[in-house]
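User: Hey, quick favor. My workstation is busy. Could you predict this chain's structure for me?
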Amino acid sequence: MAWFWWLLWIFIVVIWIVSLVDIIRRRHQRTAGKTVAWILFIIILPVIGSIVYFAINGVGGEQVPERDGDATRLAGGR
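Assistant: No problem, here it is.
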């Protein structure tokens, strides 16, 4: 039965880290105050905070669009 508790704690830690990384990765989509509020909420209440965060914001979110200049330069253009 001890393995169950270890797996549960590993799952909680992974969800906690994934949610914090997702908040930091999406920081350009919200104000600094909202980002700090989400981080504090998830640090104080890791399980409930992560569930609420993913329920409101979804998993993954929108990708940052690629800039045209970078694509042109990579393709050999000026």
